[in-house]
Design brief:
alpha/beta, eight-stranded parallel beta sheet, two-stranded antiparallel ribbon, 10 strands
Length: 241
């Protein structure tokens, strides 16, 4: 089973590689659902990481319906990833009714090739998942990252199993969200060949004054989420039993 770690920083990426992960999805700002990482982070990771790196192309937090300027930014970032010899792109676009934006997703996939293309968890918003699966197969996407349209992949298992059956090995179905040491074997037993998780722990870096830079009291700027090397190793050992 291929382990993909959602790495939100250089340290997380290094921890994923050193723990024996098979692949990284590189992003920033996990607490916002992930956005495209900076050029500096991309360049440093591609210089120092030897396992495959897939890059999240998402220009901002929030929904997955983008205006033309945002769409141009996404395409520019894909070209940058290709110049840096990244191995894959993770992205997707929806219409305002949350259905698949076929025209612009087609453009992203064509621009990405010959790199691998993962349609990300925007899939969990689409109103007709089976129909959307068929469309993504026809567009030649390589995989779908999904929680089965539930809060986590464990709760969405029934839809994930249906997607896996309907995919007929024409596209990978990669469960993600809430995957951990307690439930990962279940996904392997159900026949999923790839799995996605962040294995993060919260680390306290420093004490902060009362003034927030984010405008949100829910964010502790003195702490950082980092992919935990011990958690990844533990899950990897479980899969190898």
């Amino acid at each position: 089973m291929i382990i993909e770690i959602c790495a939100n920083s250089y340290e997380s990426a290094m921890n994923a590689q050193n723990a024996g992960a098979d692949r990284i999805e590189l992003c920033s700002e996990l607490t916002l659902g992930g956005i495209t990482p900076s050029y500096g982070l991309l360049k440093k990771v591609m210089k120092d990481i030897s396992i495959p790196v897939h890059v999240l192309i998402r220009p901002r937090r929030g929904d997955f319906t983008y205006n033309e300027d945002e769409f141009e930014i996404m395409k520019e970032n894909i070209m940058l990833c290709k110049e840096l010899n990244c191995n894959g792109i993770v992205s997707g676009i929806l219409k305002k009714d949350h259905s698949l934006d076929i025209e612009r997703t087609t453009e992203l996939i064509k621009l990405t090739k010959p790199l691998s293309f993962t349609f990300h968890r925007a899939f969990d918003w689409v109103p007709k998942p089976i129909e959307t699966l068929d469309k993504l197969i026809s567009l030649k996407a390589n995989r779908i990252l999904s929680s089965g349209q539930a809060k986590n992949a464990f709760q969405g298992l029934e839809l994930l199993k249906t997607l896996l059956k309907n995919a007929e090995n024409k596209i990978e179905i990669m469960p993600g969200s809430g995957v951990n040491a307690k439930n990962i074997v279940m996904f392997k037993r159900e026949g999923f060949r790839e799995i996605h998780f962040s294995a993060t722990s919260l680390y306290k870096n420093t004490e902060t004054p009362g003034l927030s830079m984010s405008g949100s009291e829910a964010l502790d700027e003195g702490s950082q989420l980092i992919s935990d090397i011990q958690k990844i190793r533990s899950i990897k050992r479980i899969l190898e039993k």
